[in-house]
Amino acid sequence: MGQALPPPGEALTRLTEQLGDPLTARLLSDRRGSRAWKIQGPRGAVVVKANSPDGDTARDKAAEMAQEDEHLLRLTAAGAIRPGYRVDAGPWDGGRWLAVRWVDGVPLWRALALARGPEGDRPSVRPWLQQIARTWAEHLAGMHAAGWAHADVQPTNTLIREGGRAAVIDYALACGPDSGRRRVPYRGALTHTTAPEIAAAVLATPADTHVQAEPAADVWSLGASLFWCWTGHRPVPYDDSTDRPHKLAVIAQGRTTPLADVRPWPFPTFAATITACLAPDPADRPTAKELIAAW
Question: Looking at the domain that runs over 106-294, which CATH code has it been given?
Answer without folding.
Answer: 1.10.510.10
